[in-house]
Specification:
The chain is mainly alpha-helical and 379 residues long. The chain has helices at 6-14, 17-34, 41-58, 67-82, 86-103, 114-130, 163-174, 180-196, 202-208, 210-226, 241-244, 248-268, 279-289, 294-300, 302-315, 322-333, 341-349, 356-378. The chain is globular.
Length: 379
Amino acid sequence: MPVNMKTDWFEFASTDDALLHAFLIMSALHICILRGRTSSVDAFRHQTKLVKVLNDRLSDPILSCLDSTILVISCLALIEILNASPLAAAAHIEALGQLITRRGGLMKLGLNGTVRRKALWADLGNAIAQQIKPRFPYSSDISPITLPPDSIQPTVDTSPGSIYVEVSNLEAQASGPSDLCAIIRDLQYLCLVINSANRTDITQIDRLVLSDHFYDVERRAYDLLLTQDVYSHNGLLSVAMHDALTDLSSALYMGCCLAAIIYSCLALREIPPQAGVFNQLVTNLARVAQKIDVSQAYCRYPKTLLWVLGTGGAAAQGRTERMQFVKLLDHLLQEPWMHNCDAMRDEVQYAIHITPVYLAALIDFWDDIEEMQNMRDVC
């Protein structure tokens, strides 16, 4: 899904040389990730040209505060975040904050909200990568999604036994803030909107302005994480977490917060799981998952557990943490009262509403689980 309105974004990029280079860098890196490569000659070439143009602009007090300049710096920060270089991104975020302050704040930015959206996403991505508080404050001023009158009006399942009800019960047991249930509901609603939208109609997709809602659920989930005392700010979950997350509800609650952010990036924004933006999130979710008694959790919160582990495993593609998620679900499959592998696979896929990109990553993850099952049967 487009992070910003494609029609506006293309128009802006085609009229500004720095923005065009930034756009082409992100496109080249996206292709690079999809092809399983670690570097891109095209991205390097455009970045070299972009740096020269940007340096000239930043030396001019007027040009440095243009919407296009701020948008380019946001893109550079996101590029570093997607490449798992948070320290490099931090320098861009610092410059971004200074320029936006000189402009008079986020609401003074133009280009139909594109600059604001990009800056907020870059700021949040940097905060998540470094586990610090975002620079810009959260605002709940998000316009509701207005669907075309002839489209299917999606509804979220809130019946007994749904993941919505499970998370509601989990909130009560974990004594955490009560926004997690609403976040899960919003994630499901956004998935339904995406699945019902006409993906070939760019104008229709643009009008939904979904990226505002992606940011909203990610920011709320991250803010919930920051309320947890065991969530440290030094790049890794603190050792104290292993002592503090002693009860099932607290561990699964934190796992849901992390899974919500991962799910939004993977299923809604459609960022390839190989992207570096998932590195810290997957590492932290794997650490939390170690504290979850999967057998007990499945008995009390089956859909929630499978969604958390499935999301972590799907995003862990190509990472060492992948095997940990595989082993956790494989352990669950070995329980004498557990259903067979095919039945659990269906449970994982239908625990929450899903999008095509998420489903593809989930199937790839499940192939690893079935391979482990087959190897054990052979032995």
